[in-house]
Amino acid sequence: MTEIPGPRSRELQGRRAAAVPPGVGSVLPVYVTDAGGGVVVDVDGNSLIDFGSGIAVTSVGNANPRVAERVKAQADRFTHTCFMVAPYESYVRVCENLNRITPGDHEKRSFLVNSGAEAVENAVKIARYATGRQAVVVFDHGYHGRTLLTMTLTAKSMPYKHGFGPYAPEVYRMPLAYPFRWPSGPENCGPEAAAQAIDQISKQIGAQSVAAVVVEPIQGEGGFIEPAPGFLPAIAEFCRDNGIVFVADEVQTGFARTGDLFASEHEGIVPDIVVTAKGIAGGLPLAGVTGRAEIMDKVHGGGLGGTYGGNPLACEAALAVLEEIEEGKLTERAHRIGEVMLPRLRALAERHPAIGDVRGRGAMIAIELVREGTKEPDPALTAEIARRCHAQGLLVLTAGTYGNVLRFLPPLVIPEHLLVEGLDVLEAALAG
Ligand SMILES: *Cc1c(COP(=O)(O)O)cnc(C)c1O
């Protein structure tokens, strides 16, 4: 309808600048009035195709009718009691669901908090308590949140850590199996990276000092890096042999996003603790910590919790989301999205040498942009292509340690014609 952002969005952006600090960014400053299963409508009447899902959150579609109905009905009954004061059934049902659907058929326990970062922090607290150890191992290109502990766990300095130190102690970073950038090539990447990481953990920290290894089964903010085959199983086995709690941060990869309910399943990993958030509740703030009963049950009464954790509106939303995923077979839909996107992107890569790598699984897909004929990251081109996509009404996100990854996270319910139209916009943006 108008250029993007349009006049009313620009006016709101002016008000925002006087009310909100610039530290809180926005990918695309169009102010939203409505959104659905793959389209975002702004205050100027523009409809944008949504390849972001609010960062992998609205997988079942925005304002999903089942989610909206359940939340409205709950809001009429009660909005809060605090589960630590007087509990309610929906919280227990969400935890039963998490225990049922996360990898492994061992006995599990779950509890609920408000954000991915809070869930990761709790996983670390529990692992430390259960093992009596302190060290936490994380990986290059990892992202785990913005609180003091989780920004420490996060790899990238600018913008997540820069100037916000001192950081939390006892956090150690290891090499990650990044196939595209592994010096001896992608074939050797998995075993070599695992051997390096295990050697460094053993020599520099001592396996007996490590409470937890925290890893994203596909790295999100770090650039949708799928660790090379063999890497995650080797790290998980090392943890098992040494009494280390293996924590899978499935905040971005969880809830059908990658074509499996959880990305750990792809290589048959059974984590000791699984951390979930983003796609869990259709946009209502909720996160989960799910772990082996014998680890979770160790912590003393009152040691875990929070005022809002497992808010009843968010729990109702989560129950609705899981019904949508299971009844709508959304893991299959995620697969199908990958089947449409990957061949199209690979064909584009043949014609555009700036596309150095095409990767991802299901509806978690990315392209990495480089200077022609090299592997040198091209963040300027990446920003320019994102800008062209935005101007033509396609909402895409960037990512990556080097800022040179375009990532695609369409809602799993996006109609195929919108997916194809979005890819057409991307193709035109790449052509210049
Ligand atoms: C987004 C994200 C987090 C942090 O979640 P918040 O809800 O923003 O605190 C943690 N880990 C991963 C893998 C994420 O993608």
Structure, explained:
The two termini are 22 Å apart. Helix 11 runs parallel beside helix 13 (416-431) and helix 12 (379-391) crosses helix 13 (416-431). The strands form three sheets. The protein has a seven-stranded mixed sheet, sandwiched between helices. A four-stranded mixed sheet has the order 1-2-3-13. A four-stranded antiparallel sheet has the order 11-12-15-14, with helices on one face. The model has no long low-confidence stretch (mean pLDDT 98). The chain is an alpha/beta fold and 432 residues long. It is 39% helix and 16% strand. Pyridoxal-5'-phosphate binds at residues 115-117, 120, 143-145, 216, 220-221, 249, 251-252, 277-278. The site of pyridoxal-5'-phosphate has 15 residues, from helix 5.
Features:
432 residues; Aspartate Aminotransferase, domain 2; 4-stranded mixed beta sheet; binds pyridoxal-5'-phosphate; Aspartate Aminotransferase, domain 1; 7-stranded mixed beta sheet; alpha/beta; single chain; 13 helices; 2 domains; globular
Strand order, main sheet: write it out. Answer: 4-10-9-8-7-5-6
Count of DSSP H/I helices: 13
The end-to-end span amounts to 22 Å
* Major sheet summary line: 7 strands, mixed
CATH class of the largest domain: Alpha Beta
Q: Briefly note the CATH topology name of the largest domain.
A: Aspartate Aminotransferase, domain 2
How many discrete domains? 2
Please identify the oligomeric state. Answer: single chain
> Element order, helices and strands?
HEEEHHHEHEHEHEHEEEHHHEEHEEEH
Strand content: 15-25%
Helix content: 25-40%
Q: Low-confidence spans: pLDDT under 50, at least 5 residues?
A: none
Q: How many strand units? A: 15
CATH superfamily of the largest domain: Type I PLP-dependent aspartate aminotransferase-like (Major domain)
Average of per-residue pLDDT values: 98
